[in-house]
Amino acid sequence: MKSMNLIRKFALGAALGLAVAVAPVAANAGVFISVGFAPPALPVYTQPICPGDGYLWNPGYWAYGPEGYYWVPGVWVQPPSVGVLWTPGYWGWGGSAFIFHEGYWGPHVGFYGGISYGFGFGGVGFSGGEWRGGRFAYNTAYTNVNTTVIHNTYINRTTINNTTINNSHTSFNGGNGGISARPTAQEAQFEHENHVAPTSAQMSHVQAAHAEPGNFAKANGGHPQMAAIQRPGAMNTAVPARGATVNQRAANQQQRVGQGLQSGQMNARETRNVEGREASINRQTANDRAANGGRLTPQEHQQVNQRQNNVSRSINQDKHNAATQPKAAPRQQARPAEKPHR
């Protein structure tokens, strides 16, 4: 599929509910979404462990919808065929707006704006692994792989030109404050290879990310709680962004509960259950801090995060099960009592 079908891509944008402006299409280019302001910085997070042999890492990125920028968590996915690698999408300044260039599968990793997405995507190429015959070999210097289960691994720390590495977590190329990288001669050559569009699992992952209110920058201030997940369809088992505080997570989950109750997706019993568990977590946090001079130890922080992950999972299940509650009707203002007739 040397030239991707623009109609299919525009339909994809419509299916995701995106307000898009389609820019001129270059050879082998992907979906174009035009936005007048830059996306937030990339969050720092821990990569979840690889779920099994053959999965390849897709780094998280900021997508755009009618409600603004929203975070699409990093995820392990299965490639469409043996031998292909993922080139991440990226935002680039187009002279009058920021334009999103969709990621794609191909024999080599092409230009992705010089953005350092981490975990092998350092701005140029990919250092997280390589195909060896019909199997993918993981470079454990950059990827989180259980070597007791997956044995086709190696360790090689590749040195990348520091001028192309995104040390500030900038999420876009060009423009004011953007990465100044341009395609290398080799990356320009890779542009002419056969490219394969994102898989249906990847598309569903984007849709699921868009459906989660907490992923939007206007709700999380550019610091998404759901920074990465292990595989598509597991949005409720997200890995929180590094630096996200316990209070931020609690506030985010309270917001999700409120949204679920208002929309009718959560009923009163489910809400009471979740809020009771949140109150218990808050008490545990307060007690731990009181015993440690106002701070949480790393172990205590991990325990609280685990409990919050469990609550997050319950909220997701409650919002998608059959138990619902009718939306509350607006309250009628009481009419003043009429004076008796004389």
Automatic annotation (TrEMBL):
Keyword list, A-Z: Signal
Pfam families xref list: WXXGXW
UniProt biased composition (Basic and acidic residues): 269-280
Region entry Disordered, spans: 244-342
Taxonomic source organism: Granulicella aggregans
Chain intervals with Polar residues compositional bias: 245-268
Full protein name: YXWGXW repeat-containing protein
Leader sequence segment: 1-29
Low complexity bias locations: 302-314, 322-335
